Amino acid sequence: MDISEFLRRADAVADAARAALAALAPDTRPDAAKGALNAATGDELAALRAALPALPHADRRAAGQAFNRLNQAIAALVEEFEAAQRQRATAPVLDLSMPARESWRGAKHPVTLVIEEIEAIFRELGFSVALGPEAEHAWYNFGALNFPADHPAMEMHDTLYLGDETLLRTHTSPVQVRTLQRFAPPVRVLIPGNVYRRDFFDATHAPAFAQIEGLAVDEGISFVDLKATLAEFARRFYGGTRRVRFGPSYFPFTEPSAQMDVEVDLQDGRGLRWVEILGCGLVHPAVLEAAGLDSERYTGWAFGMGPARIAMSRHDLPDIRLLYDADVRFLEQFAR
Ligand code: PHE
Prior knowledge:
alpha+beta
């Protein structure tokens, strides 16, 4: 081999290396790429290296430099190939043909919406919101509320007891007493919160549910205040033309006690119908005394209602469990 053949074959090896790498798929793994490069250039590189010492002395220096340049050129090609691969791996993949993901927003639960509407109406009527504990002392839940010692609601089958004297409150009425202990009349509060009863979970009962309590205590409060305020609430909540009626009822902590019905059209083709929406009454003097108030000086009225029941009658729901299932297909119908 003479020097001109050596240089020509060295150029050819560089071309072969470039062609071998260009023929590879861009995602070829580095070891596979090196294998392909070796297959295309290895034999010829070995032949050239072996030919070097046999060249005439005068040509050897030029041939050696050409051989080094060839090796550097191949190393540069490999580096270029790997750099392109690294860039592909980190480049963001932007696929403009991909369908956009549908956006969705959260919405409030139908019972939450009822509670907030009722709060807003009573706020306009001068009530503020008060809260109390769900884990309650039996005295607040029953004793202070004038329950007789043998009242059936206190028994194990109705109440979830936490200890001898502590329980999960069965209604929001204990917050009446807590509020009256803390704030001197005039008191006008709305008390939303969860309550618990040892009931079966069926179409009309849930062992945990929301209540909204209302309480107004001042000098000179009478049943007229109760009727006027609750009738005004019903007009605002159900619409101005709705009729309300009061019927007799019984609670240990109110005297007299009543229930309020509203005439509603459930849009089910059956027209107007009376629906009971709350229990109410004048606060029993024993409750005022238990809270430390002079029952000769102060009187008051109170009510309690179940916003889940109201949501059910409003939307004509057949089963209370729908409100607990967290099934988006059901809940999204009420999203606003
Ligand atoms: N606490 C009663 C219940 O849970 C409702 C009620 C509250 C009735 C206030 C009268 C006055 O059924």
